[in-house]
Amino acid sequence: MHRRGDLGQAEVYFRSAIDVARQQQAKSWELRAATSYAALLMENRGQRKDALAVLQPVYDWFTEGRCTKDHIEASALLADLQ
Predict the structure, then answer these.
(1) Of the residues 11, 14, 47, 60, which has the fewest C-beta atoms closer than 10 A?
(2) Neighbours of 54 (CB within 10 A)
(3) Tens of pLDDT along 1-49?
(4) ∠ at Cα 69 (65, 10), nearest 5°?
(5) CB 81 within 8 Å of CB 38
């Protein structure tokens, strides 16, 4: 989680991580990056709608395996965002 420093640069890194995960078809990594990015958008910028738009599609892609730590964290954040 990003705590200090340049929020703009953190946002660039999260977007890049999501893009790389998509290119590699690494959905679990994409979910992890999207969860972190959505948390940054919500906690530091108050952008609930944007955070939801980042996280919801990735989370919805999964039809099974939602008992992992990453899925549980994403689910909890989604509940907070809705």
Answers:
(1) 60
(2) 24
(3) 445 568 888 899 999 999 999 999 999 999 999 999 999 999 877 889 9
(4) 115
(5) yes
SS (H, E, C) the chain: CCCCCCHHHHHHHHHHHHHHHHHCCCHHHHHHHHHHHHHHHHHHHCCHHHHHHHHHHHHHHCCCCCCCHHHHHHHHHHHHHC
CA distance 74 to 62: 12
Tokens of 54: 């980042």
| Contact criterion met (CB below 8 Å) for 25 and 61 | no
Tokens encoding 2 = 């990003």
- Integer Rg of the chain from CA: 12
